[in-house]
Every structure is written in structure tokens, then in C-alpha cells.
């Protein structure tokens, strides 16, 4: 075997193999699935898995951390906005076509922006997901904004929908695509043609959102 993989057991019905953007291979299997069967499935898909591991869109760019200096740009809803560091006392982060933080809080800007983005994600993504779920006519258990590494969203076997808080940096059209994508998994578990037909019925131009994520996703993942 040319690669290692991690097995995650859960109350699911089918086995799936995912290559994350950091090139980790994750096998998601139903509880009580034998290791022999998993090894057989991995070996059967070995060539395809290796191809995905070596794909040039897996972490193609070197991440650069933010320094939080005046004039630096930060992304929000698909656009870049300048950062102003002011002498006045400001609690947390203020956004008004620019980002503002107090010079006294500059050293903890990483934490402040993380909290601000998570709050914004809860205020924008969660209600939008609820509205789209009603529109599609699907039932879910909970919708959560979480710190998910290497995935934009997920649909659990217990019908919980999770979204990566970093998604709030993306354009609304991209956010809507991820929401529709995960909610559609409540109807179709795997990425079959039926799955993509249902996504297309809600978002005819979803392929543009997919392409945006392929080209710009690395920028969303830069945690300051």
C-alpha cells in the first residue's frame, strides 16, 4: 500500500473513501464493518485514490498568515476589505466597508477575527440553510457552524448538517452551493447522477461555485 488511511466508523449504511485537501485518506464505514472488507475496498480503488492524492489541487498554494497591519486585506463574502487599526478603543471587530480594530487589541486580532467570522457565519449561513431546507422540503436534526478542517460542510448519519465557519469568506453563491450540496445529501447519500441532478435543479449554475472553490478555497482556509 502506497498510502495510509484512517477508518471512521459510524451509523451509516454505505462505505465511502474520501481524499481530503491535505491528502489524508479517510474511510467512512458502517459500524461492525470488518477490516478485511475495508482493505478489499481500498485496494479495489487504489489507483483512483492515488490519483486523487497526487492531484495538483490538493493544497496547491503555500499558506501565508495575516499580520493584522494597517491596509492589509481580509476576505468576507467573496470580497477583500482593508483593515484599519485605530487608536480609539474598539471592542472586538467592527465592519463598515472596512475592518476596524483597536491598536490596543492588535496582538489578539487573530482571536477577535475568528470570533467575528464565526458570529457572522451563524447570522448568515444558518438562517439561509433553514430557508433552503424548507424550499427543498428536507428535514434535518441540527444545523451547526463548526471548526471543520479540510471540508466545507458535512451531513451526518443522524441528519445533522455542519458548515465550516471559514465559508463565510466566500461569495453568497458559493455558500448557497455548499448549503444545497449538504442538504441534498439528506435525500441522496452519495455523489451519484441523481444527486447532481437534484443539486442542479436548485442551482443550475452550481458548477461555477465549484470552480470558484477549486481556485480560491485555499484563501478561505488561511487562518490568519
Descriptive terms for the model:
38% helix; single chain; 224 residues; alpha/beta; 10 strands; 2 domains; Zincin-like; 3-stranded mixed β-sheet
Describe this structure in words.
- It is a single chain.
- With about 220 residues, this protein is an alpha/beta fold.
- The protein folds into two domains: about 5-55, no CATH class; about 75-220, 2-Layer Sandwich (Zincin-like).
- Helix content is about 40%, strand content about 20%.
- The strands form three sheets. The chain has a four-stranded mixed beta sheet, with no helix packed on it.
CATH architecture of the largest domain: 2-Layer Sandwich
Rg, rounded, reads: 20 Å
Largest sheet, in brief, is: 4 strands, mixed
State the domain count. 2
Return the CATH class of the largest domain: Alpha Beta
Helix content bin: 25-40%
Helix-strand sequence:
EEEHHEEEEHEEEHHH
The strands making up the biggest β-sheet line up spatially as: 4-5-7-6
Computed structural class = alpha/beta
Strand content: 15-25%
Amino acid at each position: 500500500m502506497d498510502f495510509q488511511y484512517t477508518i471512521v466508523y459510524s451509523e451509516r449504511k454505505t462505505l465511502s473513501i474520501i481524499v481530503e485537501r491535505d491528502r489524508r485518506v479517510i474511510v467512512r464505514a458502517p459500524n461492525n464493518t470488518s477490516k478485511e472488507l475495508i482493505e478489499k475496498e481500498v485496494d479495489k480503488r487504489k489507483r483512483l485514490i492515488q490519483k486523487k492524492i497526487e492531484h495538483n489541487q490538493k493544497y496547491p498554494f503555500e499558506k501565508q498568515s495575516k499580520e493584522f497591519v494597517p491596509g492589509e486585506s481580509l476576505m468576507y463574502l467573496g470580497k477583500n476589505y482593508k483593515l484599519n487599526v485605530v487608536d480609539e478603543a474598539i471592542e472586538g471587530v467592527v465592519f463598515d466597508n472596512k475592518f476596524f480594530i483597536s491598536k490596543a487589541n492588535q496582538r489578539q486580532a487573530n482571536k477577535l477575527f475568528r470570533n467575528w467570522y464565526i458570529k457572522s457565519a451563524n447570522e448568515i449561513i444558518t438562517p439561509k440553510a433553514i430557508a433552503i431546507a424548507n424550499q427543498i422540503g428536507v428535514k434535518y436534526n441540527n444545523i451547526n457552524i463548526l471548526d471543520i478542517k479540510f471540508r466545507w460542510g458535512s451531513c451526518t448519519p443522524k441528519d445533522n448538517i455542519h458548515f465550516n465557519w471559514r465559508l463565510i469568506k466566500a461569495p453568497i453563491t458559493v455558500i448557497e452551493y455548499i448549503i444545497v450540496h449538504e442538504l441534498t445529501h439528506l435525500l441522496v447519500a452519495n455523489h451519484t447522477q441523481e444527486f447532481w441532478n437534484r443539486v442542479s435543479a436548485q442551482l443550475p449554475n452550481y458548477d461555477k461555485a465549484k470552480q470558484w472553490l477549486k481556485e480560491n478555497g485555499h484563501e478561505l482556509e488561511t487562518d490568519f
